Amino acid sequence: MTLATDWIPFGRGVRVVQTHACGLIAVEKPEGILSHPNPGEVAEKGTILITGNYSLEEEAFHVRDGKGGIRRVYLLNRLDSPTSGVLLLSVDEGLAGVVRKMFARSQVSKKYVALIRGRGLRTPRGTWQDQLAKTKGPGGGVRSETGAGAPAVTVYQWMRPSSGTLPLSLIHLEPRTGRTHQLRVQTSTHGHPILGDRTYGDFDFNKTVGSARGFKRLFLHAESTHLIFDWQGEKIDFKATSPMPAEFAEAMVSDEEPKGKGPKGPRKGSSTPISPRLRIRL
User: Fold this and answer.
1) What is the CATH number of domain 108-256+271-282?
2) Mean pLDDT of 102-109
3) Residue 13: what pLDDT?
4) Most distant pair of Cα atoms in the chain: their distance
5) Residue 265 forms beta bridges with which residues?
6) What is the DSSP string of the chain?
7) pLDDT at residue 35 in the model
8) Distance CA 31, CA 245 (A)
9) CA neighbours closer than 13 Å in the CB half-sphere of residue 220
10) Who has greater pLDDT, 7 or 258?
11) Which of 197, 150, 143 is nearest to 31 (CA)?
């Protein structure tokens, strides 16, 4: 069952991947797009998930429906601006309340894929259990730190190392809780920060392996979201998926020379050596 969404002014590159007649919408958010406007900030047009007035109290965008009326599009979960992938919306207020409670109770299955530092993990599959607390970061932003705080639980599955010389691995992550920046903090805490993470990652690693080779994004992607619930006498089984972005595959096979090198740089076909510091830490 489908739902018309052509009246919703989505931001740059946002794509609808699944809908249901009950009012549920799944979209694919590109990296660099905000889930909602930050309070007190004026964002460039097209850089927000949906163009329209956003109510922090309702957690909803107010959008003109093309018929002279105003309709609300409810934001059901969030992704950090640098993270891409599946995000859920609703055009029904009651449904929004039901699904938000499911997220709060960890009743929604979410699967992510990430590129992390290192070519292997000591235990290929397991569960990370930490305590995370929110703090104020530089400039007043929110960040999370391990220590006293709320439980953060993530099931991880190491998939494979890069086929090139880069010290990278592909990993699947299933958060069982929904703490702020949970996956980014836990991968870093357990010794395998995500490539391109400017807040919780390894600066030297990002520079040597990431930006030097032209990889500018955070390599974290919400690959799928699945939920089952009862709604108005019907059992809704809703699953939305978003394929792994092309940049991930490119990084996993990259043996190209760093971009921007002059005549004295590595010759074509060679790879940039990893710094001794990085070799030790992998």
Assistant:
1) 3.30.2350.10
2) 96
3) 97
4) 70
5) none
6) -----TTS-B-TT-EEEEEETTTEEEEEEPTT-BSSPPTT--PPTT-BSB-SEEETTTTEEEEE-SSS-EEEEEE-----TT-EEEEEEES-HHHHHHHHHHHHTT-SEEEEEEEEESS--SSSEEEEEEEEEEEE-GGG-EEEEESSSEEEEEEEEEEEE-SSSS-EEEEEEEESS--TTHHHHHHHHTT-PBTT-TTTS-HHHIIIIIGGGT--S--EEEEEEEEEEEETTEEEEEEEE-PPPHHHHHHHH--PPPTT--TTSPPTT--PPPPHHHHHH-
7) 96
8) 10
9) 29
10) 7
11) 197
pLDDT (tens digit, 9 = 90+) per residue, 151-164? 999 999 999 999 98
Question: Residue 147 and residue 282: Cα distance in Å, rounded?
Answer: 24
Q: Which amino acid is at 51?
A: T
Extents of the domains making up the chain:
1-105, 108-256+271-282
